[in-house]
Automatic annotation (TrEMBL):
Pfam family, one: DUF4487
Name recorded for this polypeptide: FIGNL1 interacting regulator of recombination and mitosis
InterPro entries per the UniProt record, alphabetical: ARM-like, DUF4487
Organism: Vombatus ursinus (Common wombat)
Length: 892
């Protein structure tokens, strides 16, 4: 039969087969498959060749038994397929240089060849995908011809695409769409082949030699492809190398002796060097072209980029909200994502919209994003020393970029963000840090991490920014959050050590004046006094003497300052002199009040005097002369005659007096008259029944602890000894963990020192209390807590704290808004939107806390009723929030 007569006959047969159903193909497979294979081998027409191949792979391949695939199909079809592809590639490459827009016939011919090649690759992909669906593990012997044929075609395709610029000699645009389709099809084919080869099983005990050779050949062929695609697609190139490494390790027991290790290492080194040179070239181009040219177009994307950074960081330790994943995978993902994000931050440092997005003081970050925000700010801070002065100023100076959104400075933002990380600070969360140059990383707490980086940054601070630094540190010291205030103090002390002696002295004098000007007791005064106490240790001797002269301890007006100073900061000679002078002035103040009308309004001066005397005792009690000790006791003992239970329970000034008198008596307890001790113990017993403030309870503990150092005379034993167990028992069961902890310490001191051992067991009147004391002595926990349970508890506590902080912030802003005139605003539809948002955040946090409690223990009976009441209130609020509701009943 001639070629002209055979072609129509072939077409008729193929058209008939194309209409067959799946069942018919399965039934006729034994008779039709040999005929189709014969047609495929004999056909010289590329078009018919592709049609036969597609019918074979799409309609009949799915019905061939897995074990017969190689012998019945792949060994007969694939060699011819590879030859056909090589022939098409030969014709394509040979005629490509003559391609032109005027030669339409050649253009059509080449495009037909490319389309046929795309279809052929698609047919091969169908073969690979079919094998993947057959079973979970594949034996290479059963698909022997498939990997080698596919890899040869893939490599040929990539080589052609790589050389397309030179092959098509400036006429690439005429076929670029089909070349792109060809590359995508080859890319997809390789991806599916790697998935197939990942399913290959090679048992070292039963593997055939041919299978071993096949796998070695596959790895070497993929290695050849690596060298082709190294400069085409970096991600694809990296994944191809990962495949080589993965398969080499997976089958190392059977293939390691046959692998060409030298070739693999040489190729790997060559590719690494190529990537290195590419990076250098890219960096050179960035230098020449400028990297800031597209920044103006990112203004609207800065908030999105900021959110991206925070979201990714929140999924990794030390975040409380990070999923639990293996360390190896964690490090791998970190190296890809976080390392890639770092250059982005560097590029955006000088971009004002990014600064505004990061430092906006109205950021409403969820709990899981607060630690990432803190770490981002520290990261930015680390980069600033290498930036120009204007960029440092952009970040470090507080400014307002609109009437609506004032911007914090970077240091303000760090302190604010740090305060929000209460959970991570209490856990504590750890971060890797190099503490000594040249040494390996060690785990440090979040507090230590932020503090070290903050101090390092301050050491490189530009002089023009020091006013901003002073203001920020002072505001942070005055913060109501203890941990934030402590961080500011540590930073300030570093500044005092790093700076000049004059700078340290200047700061000390300023803080001293601030303390003297503080009206009454407040947490700000406490924070300032702690800072002053620490800074005085860092002053040189000359400046200390200047301080003593400026704030003379001989003057009663300076007692409010000296009550906060540790005399241990001074050298022996001035220390003794200061102690004597403060003691004399303190005694004089007490006697002055006692000789007057004893008005409560004047009791504040007595409290200052008592506090100063207590400071002397804490600093140098062992150095007080007997005459001074007697003088102190003589001055303070009469004060007990005016202290009555009702007064102490209702008058804050009197409560403060008692809290100072108790530790003072504790210092001199061995010299105190027995009758006075009995009087004090009786007062304490009565006062505890009236639920006094915590600081009064702590003072009571201080005194009863000191009673372990004396033997009670017979005259007062009957009144004192029965009272002590009741005091300890009551405080050991206190609801406050702080009181409970101090009680355990005080009870231990008392029990170890007292001669009245009989009363010790009387203090432990329950098994719970006994176990509590035993655990304290053995330094063990009463309740074992898993790491996961601890994190869950910390999260719950963090929600409660965040709700508290929001409430305090709303109340503080509300107070400020009543004192200050409102700035003019652009039209605002919801003037109290921030207050609404903050209040609802508190409510949401409380409900989440209840949900966590339900997971830990059964619900009490009244909870359902209470939730129904809350639901009714919510429904009422919803009706009030409707646009049609003009007002709402205030009694709702």
């Amino acid at each position: 039969m001639s070629q002209d007569r055979a072609e129509p006959a072939t077409t008729v047969v193929l058209e008939e087969l194309a209409s067959w159903s799946e069942d018919l193909c399965r039934q006729e497979l034994p008779s039709v498959l040999p005929r189709l294979l014969s047609m495929y081998q004999c056909s010289d027409n590329w078009k018919d060749h592709i049609r036969v191949l597609k019918i074979l792979t799409e309609m009949f391949l799915p019905h061939i038994n897995y074990l017969a695939l190689e012998q019945s199909f792949f060994s007969q079809v694939l060699p011819k397929t590879v030859k056909l592809f090589d022939d098409m590639m030969y014709d394509l490459s040979g005629q490509a240089r003559e391609l032109s827009s005027q030669n339409l016939e050649l253009q059509a011919t080449l495009r037909n060849i490319l389309q046929s090649m795309v279809q052929l690759l698609g047919a091969l992909r169908g073969c690979v995908q079919h094998v993947c669906t057959l079973q979970e593990s594949i034996v290479l012997e059963n698909i022997h011809s498939l990997p080698s044929s596919v890899l040869r075609v893939i490599k040929s395709t990539f080589v052609h695409c790589k050389n397309s610029d030179s092959v098509y000699a400036g006429r690439l645009h005429l076929v670029s769409d089909l070349l792109q389709a060809l590359f995508k099809e080859a890319y997809s084919l390789q991806k599916h082949l790697m998935e197939l080869l990942d399913m290959v099983c090679m048992d070292a005990s039963v593997v055939e030699e041919d299978d071993t050779s096949d796998m070695v050949s596959v790895i070497h062929s993929v290695l050849d492809i690596c060298s082709v695609i190294s400069d085409m697609d970096q991600a694809f190139h990296a994944n191809t190398w990962k495949f080589i490494i993965k398969q080499s390790l997976k089958h190392q027991a059977v293939i390691k002796s046959q692998l060409k290790h030298k070739d693999i290492m040489a190729a790997l080194c060559e590719d690494i060097l190529f990537s290195f040179h590419s990076c250098l070239q890219l960096a050179e181009q960035m230098t020449q072209s400028g990297t800031q040219e597209f920044l103006p177009f990112l203004s609207d994307s800065c908030c999105t980029l900021h959110e991206l950074y925070l979201q990714i960081h929140s999924k990794f330790p030390p975040s409380l909200y990070a999923p639990v994943i293996p360390k190896a995978q964690e490090k791998e993902i970190l190296s890809v994502f976080l390392v890639a994000l770092d250059p982005l931050i560097s590029q955006l440092l000088s971009f004002t919209p990014f600064v505004e997005a990061v430092l906006g003081d109205k950021l409403d970050l969820s709990s899981e994003l607060q630690l990432p925000q803190c770490l981002l700010l520290v990261n930015i801070m680390d980069k600033l020393p290498s930036q120009p002065e204007n960029v440092q100023s952009l970040w470090c100076e507080r400014s307002q970029y609109s009437e609506h959104k004032p911007r914090m400075s970077l240091l303000e933002a760090i302190f604010y963000s740090f305060e929000q990380c209460s959970g991570e600070l209490s856990l504590p969360a750890n971060l890797p840090e190099v503490t000594t140059k040249g040494q390996a990383e060690v785990a440090v707490t979040l507090y230590q991490y932020v503090c070290v980086h903050l101090c390092t940054f301050i050491a490189s601070f530009h002089p023009s920014l020091f006013p901003e630094l002073d203001v920020t540190l002072l505001n942070a010291v005055l913060n109501s959050g203890m941990i934030t205030s402590l961080l500011a103090m540590d930073t300030w002390c570093f500044l005092a050590r790093y700076g000049t002696a004059e700078l340290c002295a200047h700061h000390v004098f300023i803080i001293a004046h601030l303390i003297k000007s503080c009206p009454g007791e407040c947490y700000q005064l406490t924070n300032l006094s702690v800072l002053l106490r620490r800074l005085l240790f860092l002053m040189d001797t000359d400046h200390q003497m200047e301080f003593i002269q400026k704030f003379s301890p001989k003057e009663a007006e300076n007692l409010p300052l000296w009550q906060h100073i540790s005399f241990k900061a001074f050298s022996p000679e001035p220390k003794s002199q200061i102690a004597n002078e403060v003691t004399m002035v303190g005694i004089a103040q007490c006697k002055k009040w006692l000789s007057s009308r004893h008005t409560l309004g004047e009791l504040e001066s007595v409290n200052v005097a008592l506090s100063a005397l207590l400071t002397v005792c804490n600093s140098i009690s062992e150095a007080l002369e007997m005459g001074q000790q007697a003088g102190v006791l003589e001055a303070v003992s009469p004060l007990w005659t005016i202290l009555h239970v009702n007064q102490v329970s209702s008058q804050p000034y009197v409560q403060w007096t008692l809290s100072l008198l108790l530790p003072l008596l504790g210092f001199f307890v061995q010299a105190v008259e027995p009758q006075l001790i009995s009087q004090v113990v009786t007062l304490q017993t009565s006062l505890l029944k009236l639920d006094p403030p915590d600081y009064v309870r702590l003072a009571i503990l201080d005194f009863v602890s000191s009673l372990g150092r004396i033997f009670f005379p017979q005259a007062i034993q009957e009144k004192v000894l029965p009272s002590l167990p009741s005091i300890f028992t009551l405080l050991l069961t206190d609801k406050s963990w702080l009181i409970e902890q101090h009680t355990l310490e005080a009870f231990t001191d008392f029990a170890e020192g007292t001669n009245h051992e009989d009363i010790v067991p009387q203090c432990l009147n329950s098994e719970e209390t006994k176990n509590k004391v035993i655990c304290f002595l053995e330094k063990t926990r009463m309740v074992d807590e898993t790491a996961r349970a601890r994190v869950d508890r910390i999260k719950q506590e963090k929600r409660v704290l965040n709700g508290h902080f929001v409430k305090v912030k709303v109340e503080r802003e509300g107070c400020l808004s009543t004192l200050q005139p409102r700035a003019k605003r652009i039209r605002q539809e919801f003037p109290l939107e921030e207050e609404y948002r903050s209040t609802l955040q508190i409510a949401e946090g409380a409900l989440e806390a209840v949900q966590l409690l339900l997971q830990r223990s059964p619900a009490p009976g009244w909870l359902t009723v209470k939730l129904e009441e809350l639901q009714m209130k919510i429904n009422t609020l919803k009706s009030c929030a409707q646009p049609s509701a003009s007002s709402c009943n205030k009694n709702t």
